[in-house]
Amino acid sequence: QVQLVESGGGSVQAGGSLRLSCTASEYNSNTYCMGWFRQAPGKEREGVARIWRPAGGTYYAASVKGRFTISQDNAKTTVLLQMNSVKPEDTAMYYCAAGTWTECYSSSWSGFRDWGQGTQVTVSS
To answer: Cα(6)–Cα(21) distance, rounded to whole angstroms?
Structure first.
């Protein structure tokens, strides 16, 4: 089982920026797809962004496209989510998840097998 640890959450004003980090315990086929998800109180979990490795291809939910950027470090152990121009509706618990290429090439956000504990992001207006 892949261990995932998120960090970087916090409080920020609308229009500001925040960067989340996810460190994985291993880099192999089980982590070739890394995704960021979020869940706000009373709402279902939704996919935000995903990246397939090592190529670095990315995919974003429409709600964050153009504002958020997912990337990986050179060692492939850390995946970042740069959040710019944040809005109050971005407030949620953010989770990092790992999967195989199958998850990244899917049209859905399902199938990710390993999850981090989450990091809270709060955006005030």
So the answer is: 5
CB 116 within 8 A of CB 97: yes
C-alpha neighbours within 13 Å on the C-beta side of residue 76: 15
Helix, strand, coil tally for the chain in percent (to 5)? 10, 50, 45
Six-digit token pair at 119? Answer: 């990091």
Please write the tens of the pLDDT for every residue from 84-119: 999 999 999 999 999 999 989 888 899 999 999 999
Q: How many CB atoms lie within 10 A of CB 28?
A: 11
SS3 56: coil
Helix (H) or strand (E) holding 104: helix 101-105
